[in-house]
Model the fold of this input.
Amino acid sequence: MTIPHGSGNLVGLPFPTAAKPRVRDIGLRANLRRATGTIRAKRAAVVEEVERTGDWEPLREAGRAIKAWTMRNLPELLERFETAATEAGAVVHWARDADEANRIVGDLIRARNQREIVKVKSMATQEIGLNEALAAQGIEATETDLAELIVQLAGDEPSHILVPAIHKNRSEIRELFAARMPGTDASLTDEPAALAEAARRHLRAKFLSAKVAVSGANFAVAETGTLVVVESEGNGRMCLTLPETLISVVGVEKILPRFADLEVFLQLLPRSSTGERMNPYTSMWTGATDGDGPSDVHIVLIDNGRSATLADEVGRQALHCIRCSACLNVCPVYERTGGHAYGSVYPGPIGAILSPQLTGVAANKSLPYASSLCGACYEVCPVKINIPEVLVHLRQEAPKNAAEKSAMATMGWVMRSRRRYEAGLRAARMGSSPWRGKGSLSRLPWPMSGWTSSRDLPVPPRESFRDWWKREAAEGTGANGEGE
Amino acid sequence: MSAREEVLARLRTALRDAPVEPEPVRDYRREGTTDPEELRALLVDRLRDYKATVHETTPDGLPTTLSAVLADATVLAVPADLPVEWLAGHTGEVRADPDVPGLDTSDAVLTGAAVAIAETGTIVLDAGPAQGRRALTLVPDRHVCVLFAEQVVATVPEAIARLRSPASPLTWISGPSATSDIELRRVEGVHGPRRLDVVLVGAADG
Ligand code: SF4
Done:
C-alpha cells in the first residue's frame, strides 16, 4: 500500500523567491524582530523558573517519550479515543484528506440549516482551508481570535502560529477596524486596550447568537475521549460553550494516551509558547454534558499526510509537535523572512520539516533548505524534535549528485550527535572570518566543511543569515541555547 | 473502504517496520511544597502576577469579605447550589443559574472552585459544588471565585491527580482573559471576564 500525501494550504512559492521581498521589507522585519525578541525573553524567564527545580529536562524527555510511544501505538490509541468519545456522546468522523474533512464539516453545518458559524483559531482548519471551502458552500466562518480577526478583516494570511498578526502594528489595525468592522466608532484610538474592546463588542453578538462553532484541539486523550483547547482570550471558551453544535477538527497526531499525560504537556506548552506559567484559559470536554455546553458534539479526525509522515523513520518525529512556536521565535531565518515566506500554514523550522512531509518532498522541495541548521530550534523544542536532523534527512530525499549526497550524509551524522554538532558550531564560530570577508558562506571548518565544499550553504536568504552570524560572533551569546 | 478503515490501515502500514517504543519514563517532579504558608504565599504571588485581585479571609469572615468585594455588583449571578451563607451580607440582586442573556446583563458571577495550583496561579473548575455550568464564569465581565486553603496544591501533577474524572467539563483559569495580539502588549480582558477576584479562605482565626 502506498500512503498518499496531504493537500491544502501547505505549498506556496519556492522559499527563496517568497523570502526575498519579505527580507527587504524593513517594517515587517522590525515588527518581527521585536516580537520574536519579546517572546524569546518571556519564554526564557519562565523556563528558567522550572530549570531551577531541575525539572525542565525531565519534562521535555517525558514529553518526547510520550509522543514517541503514542505515534508507535497510534492506530490502537485512535480506536480507543473513538470508543471513549462516542460513549461520552460525541460523534467521531474520519477524513483521509483536506477535501474530505471540509466536506464533512460543510455537510454538518448545512444539515443544521446554518449559514454563519464562529471559529476558534486552529492550525488544522487553516491547513485544510476550511474557511474557503465553507465560503464556496455559502457558509460564512467568523474567526474569533483577535489576531485571526485582524488577519481575516485584512484578507491576509497569518504569519505566525501564535501571533498571526505579528506583521501588523497598532495603527494598521485601527485603520482596519474602522474600515471593515461593522459598528466601529470613528473615535476609536489605536490603544491596544481600545482595539481589544472594539473587537469584544463586535464579536459578542456573534457568540451569543451562533448555533454552530468549529474548533481544533491541542490534545485528544485516548483513555477518556477528552479534547483540550488551550487559549488566552476566552473566545475559545465562548465557541466551546455557547453554541448548540460543536465541530472539532483534530489531526490524528494530537492523541495523548492518558488523561494524566496532560500534566506534562500543560507544563511544557504555555511556558514554551506564550512564555507564561499557564495560559489564561484551558478547556477540557468529554463528549456532551447535559445542561452544560453543546449537546451536538462532533470530532473530525484528519489524516491529510500524517500517515505518510509517520512512515518515515527519521521524519515522523515532526508529528510530535505541539505547535508552541518556540522554534519560530529563535530561528534567525524566520526572524528575517516572517511566516509568509514559507508558503504553508506551518512556518518556521517546524514548517520546514512538517509541510514537505505532509505534501511529499517533491511538492515542497525548497522548504528543507529554509534553514541555516544552527540548531536553536532543537534546543528550545519542548518535545525535543531534532529539526536539523530531519531537515538534513529531507534534503537527502532528493539528492542532486553524489558529492552533495555524501556532504549531506556528513551533515546528518553531525546533527545526530549534539556534542559533535555543537563542536562544529563552535569551530564554525571561531573560524568566522573567511566567509565574512568574502561575503559568501562558501567555507566552513570541518566537520561542516563536507557540506559546504560541494554546495554553498543553502541558506535562503543568505544575507540574513550572515547578519545574524556576525551578531552572534560579536556578542557570543545564546541564540544557540543554554550555556552557549 | 471507509475513511476510518483506510486511515487506520495507512497508519498500520506506516508503522510496519517501526521498532517497539519503550514505556515513557516519567521522572519529573510530582509534588511541591505542602507547607500551608508557603502554598498560600506562592499562590497569592502568582495570582497577582497575572493580574488577578486577591482577597484573604477566614471561614467566619467570608460573608463580610464577599459583601465588600461585591459591593458594586448590582446584579450578581451564582450557581444554583452556592452556599447561602456566602451571601449573608450581600444586598444586590442575585440570579441563580440564569440563562445566557441573564448572564450577559449580570455585573459579576460568584462561584467556588475544585482545585488551585500555586506554582502557576491557576484555578480549576470542574462543574462540581458551587461552580455551576461553564457559561456562568464566562459571560459576565467579572468573576469572583472563592477558594479554600485545602484546595490549593503546589504543582500541575498534584492538580491532575485530584481531577481524576474528566467526564465533566473542566476549565483552567489563570488570571483574567488576555491578549497580546496587538504589538505584543498584554491587554487584560477580551471575551472572558476582564476582572478576576480570588477570595482565599485560610484557616480559622486562632
Ligand atoms: S517543533 Fe517543537 S518548538 Fe517548534 S512548534 Fe513544534 S513543539 Fe514547538
Q: What stands out?
A: The helical segments of chain B are 3-14, 36-49, 62-69, 100-104, 156-162. The pocket of iron/sulfur cluster is lined by residues A 272, 321-327, 350, 380-383, 385 (CB under 6 Å). Chain B touches chain A through 72 residues (CB under 8 Å). Chain B has five helices and twelve strands.
